[in-house]
Amino acid sequence: MTQEERRTGRDESDEERADRMWGELIQEVRVAQTGVQILFGFLLTVVFTPKYEQLEHANQVLYLVTVVLGATATGALIGPVSLHRLVSGRSVKPQAVRWASRMTFVGLVLLLATMTAALLLILRVATHDAYVPWLVAGVVTWYLLCWFVLPLWARQRDTSRPGR
User: Fold this and answer.
1) SS3 58
2) How many CB atoms are located within 10 Å of the residue 22 CB?
3) Distance separating alpha carbons of residues 143 and 80, to the nearest angstrom
């Protein structure tokens, strides 16, 4: 993509574009960070409750997997802040925006996995009915539609038109 093609629709330099994209990315990360940190904090407390010892072994394993997923999601979603802090002033903002965007995407995928595992664990403990996997599958499908399918569809639809 040439410099002229990239400027279509906005009159901004690569640095100005990187500044704008960085600001937008950080606003998005703030929302996801808050959610994953609250979820992770609640997950950390479960092991200290009397109910934890009463869980079946499979549910204890599922809990541990959920905590590890939550920890990795937290790391990926806090990563852009650390990246920015460590490379700030080094004239690499366009590259930092790309790396931070990738970390954020990975963090969202890990957050999806964390929420799926947490929902599965909660529903398995709350009820032992056979419909639990179906409920979880329905919620995960909803997340996939909201977080990935609809945005990718809109991106493809709205950026593939002639003149765009």
Assistant:
1) helix
2) 18
3) 23
- Which pTM value belongs to this model? 0.85
Name the DSSP class of 55. S
* 49 Cβ contact list (under 8 Å, min separation 6): none
Here the tokens at position 20 are 């704008």
Distance CA 101, CA 104 (A): 5
- What is the number of helices (H) and of strands (E) in the chain? 7, 0
Contact assessment for residue 67 and residue 97, using Cβ atoms and an 8 Å cutoff: no
**Per-residue model confidence as pLDDT tens digits over 9-24:** 678 888 899 889 999 9
DSSP for residue 49:
S
d(CA 32, CA 9): 29
Distance from chain centroid for Cα 97: 16
At 91, list the tokens.
């004239």
List the one residue out of 103, 48, 39, 93 whose CA is nearest residue 71: 39
- Residue 55 — pLDDT band, cuts 50, 70, 90? very high
Q: What's the full length of the chain, in residues?
A: 164
